[in-house]
Amino acid sequence: MVGTTAADDVACGDGNETRTCVVLGGRGFLGRSLVTRLLRLGGWFVRIADSSSHLLQLDRSAASDSILSSALSSGRASFCHVDVRDTSQIIKVTEGAGVVFYMERTDLDTHDIYSCYKIIVQGVKNVINACQECKVRRLIYNSSADVVFDGSKDILVGDESFSCPGNFPDVLIDFNLQAEELIRLANNIDGLATCVLRPSNAFGPGDTWFVPLLVNLAKSGLAKFITGRGENMCDFTYAENVAHAHICAAETLDSRSVSVAGKAFFITNLEPMMFWEFASHILEGLGYQRPFIKVPSWMFAYTLSLLQHTHEESHFRIDKYSPHYIVQLASRTRTFDCSAAQKHLGYSPVIYLEDGVRSTIASFSHLAKDSSFMRDNCLNTIKAVKLLGSGIVADVLLWRSAKRTLLCFLVLAFLFYWFFRCGRTFTSSVAKLLLLVTVVLYGYGNLSANIGFFAVKRISSSCFEIPESTLKNSLRSVSYTWNRGARHIKLLAKGEDWGKFFKVAIFLYIAKWMLEYYPLDVFVRIALVVAFTAFIVYEQHEPVIDGLGWVLYYGITALEELVRRSLPSFPRR
Q: Most buried residue, 135, 159, 228, 275, by most Cβ within 10 Å?
């Protein structure tokens, strides 16, 4: 569904007048949406300026590039490469333009902080100087709602009076705030009117960060996790609505409105929803499993950080923000009051959130999962049964029969006392146990068939026989385990696998350390208690325990990879 039509953008100005505008960053994610909307409206000559490439590369199959191709052919659009660090290049493209839209840069090398500063902060200074020299009347800067968020607390219906924090967890946000302040301070100097827009969680076709990040997390197995309580609300903004807001701001600035010039405005879809529900819609639409396991935010952040460092050359990449800041974005409530933009800019969403999500999923069909994913989470709730089987062991350890479980526990507790707490040697304990069993069985066998009103059941000799098939299977299992251990020992002897060496060395060291400080009976006692409690607890809290287990697994794997890459490799023999 569409809230308004394209004609609503023109309604603020003269539709018969052809105006010239410059879209800096016009080949970026939001820049493409703005260029497409301007060309669809008509009445605009669009100069596309971008630093990503010296040549304009178009995808004829994409609707937006098809529109741009027609506009380039008809002369309604032009393209040139512009580096915002060079003022002369900006002056060349802005001469004769009435409005400049400065959109986000998507080609930043986030590892080069100095370069980011030159592009974001110094770039804005150069754009302002160029606009003043070329007598440009309007400059609209695309900022972000992130400039008022430091991750320390939730933001509930924050408006433009919300104070920006002093310290940011991510340096790029600090640079964006500095650039925003420069834009606002430049208002009404040399006839230039400025305005700043702060879209919240922009998404849509061509998204270069949010949707690709979700897909990368899904491919790495981390998208099944929910950080924090999973109840945090967020505002999202479809890309075409961001473009519409920029055009509304340009039209309003043309009237020199004092309520708009030099001000900043939050832009949203006016449809706040739970962050993890939104992420689930995207993931499910692309064929991936929706998040369902809740884990602590700090644990997920450290795991994400380790994966970033150990998978820099693979498909797993986290650009733009740090892992800790990403987790804060995903676990905090961030909703904003968009009434100022509605009142002063005449803004209202032109695309509803549901339709925006559908269009976004369709545009990222190339990232969809090929194979079918697990559709019923209930399949994950029977792992305890799969681990124990469906026999007597499962019935006992899962407490399906309280009498049987208590009886087994008492028997094992008796054996523990008999072998570990009586002060006898193991051989003496075995001998006395066999003697006790013999006396009990002999006495039981000599009992009369009836004692009072009770009938005594006889024990069949077959109860003490071991089936030949069971004995063969047991021997096969022992043989398989022995041969597998021998193969691992051979691999260790060759000295070619650092990972296996560290696993064995760490295990042996921990076992040696624990046996030095704690006697064997302590471990038997712990194992007895854990066996009768762990499986029933796991059955009742399986999603949470699975989540912690997966995060721990990914963290250890990433740490192991990090250590392995820093070690020299053994020469092949």
A: 275
